[in-house]
Design brief:
heterodimer, A: mainly beta, lipopolysaccharide transport protein A fold, five-stranded antiparallel beta sheet, 5 strands, B: mainly beta, ten-stranded antiparallel beta sheet, 1 helix, 14% helix
């Protein structure tokens, strides 16, 4: 016998199991960028740093993976991140 | 006739033999290094640019110079490199300078501090065992490196640094934290 609320239960289960990383929190914007990569080169201080190889960038609950990432800094802060791959 | 020829040959052989024996004693000081090993306390050296300004300054409590190799060793050296906009201060546990004064091998704990001459903003690099090339103002290391500026911190293994162009390469295992606006 089929449970009448089976659809609802399945929907709740699906929503609970939905990967949370698909949603970035509003507070993530204020979090620092944590980066991992094989190599990097760029200019000291303000300017562009290019991260290469197995790049992972975390900001709060957000995780991004890429082959190459370009991190642009101005006035001592990151203002743009470009991802490739 | 044969006797004269034999005598001539013997005389020639005797003369060559005498020459070979005499040669080592003919110039007795040829290979002797008359320079002395020396040590300088409160060592201070300045490298000037074309206009007479100080480009590079090296200070150390003591410098020991090996006369035969020309290599100098220093304890606790302080190096100041003056560039157009920035000043670099470099310290190490010890250092070895090549005879031509073009390469400085910084040994042990090595700290770099870059200060902007106008804004006074600083950037720090902490690492170990660095080879500093004096004329191109480059530094390389294979050791662990930490670069810190404001709230940013980058750790890696291995670094190539160009102090003139302000560019760097971190060669392995890059891990860092960047501050956001």
């Amino acid at each position: 016998m089929r449970h009448p609320d089976a659809k609802k239960i399945l929907l709740v289960l699906f929503l609970l199991m939905w990967p949370s990383w698909l949603f970035a929190l509003e507070s993530d914007r204020q979090q620092p960028l944590m980066v991992d990569a094989d190599t990097t080169d760029g200019t000291l201080g303000d300017g562009t740093a290019v991260l290469r190889g197995n790049v992972e960038i975390r900001q709060g609950s957000l995780l991004v993976q890429a082959d190459v990432a370009e991190v642009e800094k101005a006035d001592g802060k990151v203002h743009l991140v470009g991802l490739t791959g | 006739m044969r006797g004269i020829a034999l005598l001539t040959v013997l005389a020639a052989l005797a003369w060559f033999g005498a020459q070979e024996r005499e040669q080592p004693n003919s110039r007795p000081f040829e290979n002797l290094d008359t320079r002395l090993n020396y040590a300088l306390w409160n060592f201070n050296a300045q490298l000037l640019d074309d206009s007479g300004g100080v480009n590079l300054l090296i200070e150390a409590p003591i410098l020991r110079n090996n006369a035969s190799s020309g290599i100098g060793t220093m304890e606790n050296p302080h190096i100041r490199i003056q560039l157009e906009q920035d000043e670099w201060y470099i310290t190490a546990d010890s250092a070895i300078i090549t005879a031509d004064r073009e390469f400085v091998s910084l040994i042990g704990k090595v700290d770099f501090l870059r200060q902007n001459r106008l804004s006074r903003e600083t950037l720090e690099i902490r690492t170990r065992d660095v080879m500093l090339s004096v004329t191109p103002r480059t530094a390389t290391t294979e050791a662990e490196v930490a670069i810190a500026q404001n709230n940013d911190l980058i750790n890696a293994v291995g670094m190539k640094l160009d102090m003139i162009t302000d560019s760097y390469e971190l060669l392995e295992k890059v891990r860092g934290t960047y501050a956001t606006p």
